[in-house]
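Reminder to self: tokens first, then the designed residues, so the page reads top to bottom the way the pipeline ran.
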């Protein structure tokens, strides 16, 4: 594959999907954030705490919403860089009759490993949940769980490639063992990692709505990125980014 073509379709896929994510969030996620901020502001006023000028706060939210679209595009580009590399190396072994289907399969796996599994331990919360004093601690825990899930999945994928593909009995066993090992590691991490230290002090319905909305929009992002990248790949028909000998060594 020509390096420039690969870079272009990979980054463009993420930028487009990320921009759409930012636009969707304006409709689905941002209204829930506004509700959470309103609750937090009312609570501070009731406690006679100093609150920034409400007009300035409103202007800041407008700026924040507009900036979210750009931020989502940047985030999409970053994620697609990783996604494109993984897809380029694993495309031949992914199920599917075309590159869109193959890309969707990989996106589903990565969405599960890098978002859904960590969210079971550390689900997304709106701004009104969480103390500013614990934000870095919570981020470390969340990123740590993503790293455990991602590295475990990658290591098991490499092991899967190493096993004998010609032995149908062995093939069946490894299809059971690989997910089982991943599940055991994640269960262990779930037990070892501490819980979120912050209590939820706003209506649980709002928190649940926010979590569901966040998972929905992120899922849409992964799906769109996969479809766009797969479409580019099918239409441009790029050659392999690595030569055949490297591919053979990678598959062994």
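Designed residues (252 positions):
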């Amino acid at each position: 594959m020509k390096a420039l073509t690969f870079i272009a379709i990979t980054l463009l896929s993420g930028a487009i999907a990320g921009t759409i994510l930012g636009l969707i969030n304006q409709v689905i996620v941002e209204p829930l954030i506004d509700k959470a901020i309103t609750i937090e502001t009312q609570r501070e006023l009731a406690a006679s705490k100093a609150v920034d000028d409400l007009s300035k706060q409103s202007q800041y939210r407008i700026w924040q919403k507009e900036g979210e679209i750009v931020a989502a595009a940047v985030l999409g580009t970053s994620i697609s860089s990783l996604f494109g590399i993984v897809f380029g190396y694993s495309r031949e072994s992914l199920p599917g009759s075309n590159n869109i289907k193959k890309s969707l399969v990989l996106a589903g796996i990565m969405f599960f490993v890098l978002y859904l599994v960590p969210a079971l331990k550390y689900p997304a919360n709106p701004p009104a949940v969480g103390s500013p004093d614990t934000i870095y601690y919570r981020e470390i825990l969340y990123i740590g769980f993503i790293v455990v899930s991602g590295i475990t999945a990658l290591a098991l994928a490499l092991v899967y490639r190493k096993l004998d593909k010609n032995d149908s009995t062995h093939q069946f066993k490894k299809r059971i063992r690989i997910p089982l090992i991943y599940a055991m590691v994640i269960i262990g991490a779930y037990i070892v990692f501490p819980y979120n230290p912050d209590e939820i002090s706003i209506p649980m319905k709002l928190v649940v709505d926010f979590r569901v909305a966040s998972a929905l929009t992120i899922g849409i992002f992964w799906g769109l990125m996969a479809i766009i990248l797969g479409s580019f790949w099918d239409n441009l028909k790029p050659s392999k980014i690595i030569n055949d000998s490297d591919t053979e060594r990678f598959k062994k």
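Residues 241-252 have pLDDT under 50 and may be disordered.
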